[in-house]
Amino acid sequence: xxxxxxxxxxxxxxxxxxxxxxxxxxxxxxxxxxxxxxxxxxxxxxxxxxxxxxxxxxxxxxxxxxxxxxxxxxxxxxxxxxxxxxxxxxxxxxxxxxxxxxxxxxxxxxxxxxxxxxxxxxxxxxxxxxxxxxxxxxxxxxxxxxxxxxxxxxxxxxxxxxxxxxxxxxxxxxxxxxxxxxxxxxxxxxxxxxxxxxxxxxxxxxxxxxxxxxxxxxxxxxxxxxxxxxxxxxxxxxxxxxxxxxxxxxxxxxxxxxxxxxxxxxxxxxxxxxxxxxxxxxxxxxxxxxxxxxxxxxxxxxxxxxxxxxxxxxxxxxxxxxxxxxxxxxxxxxxxxxxxxxxxxxxxxxxxxxxxxxxxxxxxxxxxxxxxxxxxxxxxxxxxxxxxxxxxxxxxxxxxxxxxxxxxxxxxxxxxxxxxxxxxxxxxxxxxxxxxxxxxxxxxxxxxxxxxxxxxxxxxxxxxxxxxxxxxxxxxxxxxxxxxxxxxxxxxxxxxxxxxxxxx
Length: 504
Fold this sequence. Notes:
Elements: H1 9-15, E1 16-27, H2 57-60, H3 71-83, E2 87-88, E3 95-98, E4 108-111, E5 118-126, E6 132-144, E7 148-152, E8 164-168, E9 175-181, E10 184-185, H4 191-209, E11 221-231, E12 241-246, H5 249-268, E13 276-281, E14 286-292, E15 302-303, H6 314-322, H7 328-339, H8 343-352, H9 355-363, H10 368-386, H11 396-407, H12 413-424, H13 430-437, H14 445-458, H15 462-467, H16 474-484, H17 491-503
Helix pairs in contact: 1-5, 3-6, 4-5, 9-10, 9-11, 11-12, 12-13, 14-16, 14-17, 16-17
């Protein structure tokens, strides 16, 4: 596939105004699926490992099977709608969205069409430079997920060029809430960053509500990014593309930037934008055509005949409203104050997209500065090298355990970095990595004194310098001891012993 022509990003913004839209799918972590009692793979307590085992006749749409609405999923959807500032419908209905694809065994999806459960909301998104941007929400509606296809053979992992495809229906019927924004205008050069910040906010809200693990790398949170351009001064919106299932915040930002540059080059050359879905390629940082984008009429929506309208009581809505957690913006302000971070330090945390992970690490017992140090430092470095999300590599509890080992003197920072690498490599818990790699700090005085004597023998003048008041000379001995012991010596204890020898 020939690489598309791209216009310089700044030049594209001179000529065109970007308009964004997002469709974010949140998998709800109910114990069972949306319309059946099959175990929900998105619920952490369900150990679903084998393909096509978490299914029922309802999941497969077998003749005679009847769907039943998951009450917990409805409550979760209402909570999410309220957190998005939406109105909750007095009555909402399900419809059949008809389309044929192998991962949809019924050949239709039960979704909500013209009567969603939540509508007309807005959320406040903080951009990396601290600017606040209001994103308008059109609707949040309930639906069921499709199965999952695995394309075998070929070089891209997609159906094109594959030798054969495997289908796993475990995910079919998993409860979803799809959040649809209105057209987002005015982001300008911040459009890519706004996309990443918005999806990150949705993740934070879902996690705070306790309705989803919202892990993009696991598919709990999926984003379709719509991008269109219109010439400066034009009122009519341009033709949009929809980049499907972008699976990291970084990729959301990159995909939006790429589409702006690609579309601008086409329009400037007198071409037309095709309304279509596009696939994001993480390895090349490009998008490629998928299929012509369907409109609502193409799906032949009609009311689901087997399900009654959802009519939540005002008392339930009020109960869920009263139970809403702290708003993300208020939470950020509170955490900044509690942690004692400077404006710059906290902005670095927010911009890193690791606020949730750092907060969870602090909750697990680590000091805020230590949690920040490890997540935005060593873990972020490894994640960048692996082109992965930091949260996908290690858990906050493991990071807190590593910090505790450092605080106790059992590990030095150098050794702790090796422990982080081991945990990320799948070698076990921090304690197991310390044991298997033999990374314990040596604090035994006998071993340390032997190493100190060897270092002093190589530097016989050091003790005399220390006795003359040149205490900094001890650093040469400490460094030699640490080197000889592979960084496993207790540096503080080594210093104490060297100074004791000098006073003898």
